[in-house]
Amino acid sequence: MNRKQARAAAASPQSGVAAAAVAVWLMASGSPVLAAESADTLLVNGKIITVDDRFTIAQGVAIKGQHIVAVGGTGQILKLKGAATKVIDLANRTVIPGLIDNHAHFIRAPEHDEMRLDGVTSRREALRMLAARVHAARPGEWIATLGGWSEEQFTDDPRGFPLDELDRIAPGNPVVLQAVYNQSYLNSAALKAAGIDAATPDPRGGRIEKDPGGKPTGVVRNAGGVAFVAAKIPLPDRETWPANLRKFVAELNAMGITAWYDAGGRGMSERHYEAYRTLADRGELNARAFWTTFRQPTTPEQVDKVLAEIAQQTSFQGSDYFDNIGWGESVYTPATTNLLRYDYVVKPEDMREVRRIAHALAEGGMFLNAHVEMENAISAYLEEYETINKVVRA
Questions:
Q1: Of residues 341, 354, 348, 347, the one with CA closest to residue 381
Q2: pTM for the whole thing?
Q3: If residue 208 lies in a helix (H) or strand (E), which one and from where to where?
């Protein structure tokens, strides 16, 4: 393995597998130096899933600082108890290694204190939640739900939220309820605050639905429209954003997630990563986040600009907790497939632009993530990768 390969392996999301293996080795062997000292935290009387070669299940584990220093029976682990050691009795509960999500879009989640509709199966309950949120909100405060639900999940009334209904519940607070990445439902206050009116043109890749008189209906459709609306919601201040992030990461930790690869999203810029970088620099980011630059060139001329940007980028300059590792996930817009659409046609001229970008990234030793569905598209991308791999060896 050369230096470039080692750097990429250490900083990429896939390196989480290696990191987990190291943690397992520490758990299985312990460190005789550290094990002789008292530990900071002991977990005892549980089922510790080590994921070693024998898939050993132990009773306890000892932790000192950022390291697992011993694993074994409860009696053995309790020998590392000191005056200040915290002991947690697991009462036969199970402890697993941290989970790594290898494709997520979490970076933007802490921007807003969202009203989440995940798992809400009643539209009536969703309206009740909205009314309660409006009642607790400050005058003019935005209320947003940016994905995580669809109209079909409402078993009592599977439909969206008309403008007049949202206006009745929230006459003074801007409301945006985004369904998956398909459409956003806005009330009049949100349309006004976002500057969306009869004269507003459709955003790229989106459509502002209007009535026969040309007035916006409150529905903005398609991925480009969803991104257009989301960009109108004010970002939090420098104090609120890190606080939101701490809360969000704690929720991920509660689900067992300790690391993820983040594929970014439309409209994202450096400012969306600042809160993460701030906490990582302080040693306060309790999860590892590795992300890629997100661009959506639509023409060969725009690809030229992307290539110039790639030439100036040096990835893997962050830390073990937060780092940019390359590029993704929409490589070239005309060669990007739609979920569950079987009518995609692979065009040589489009794959030529994909090849240009992929080749430049390979030469720069950077990671590339291409999010494509359907067999013909996947095969076309793999063929390009295999061709490049014969020429460029990182």
A1: 354
A2: 0.73
A3: strand 207-210
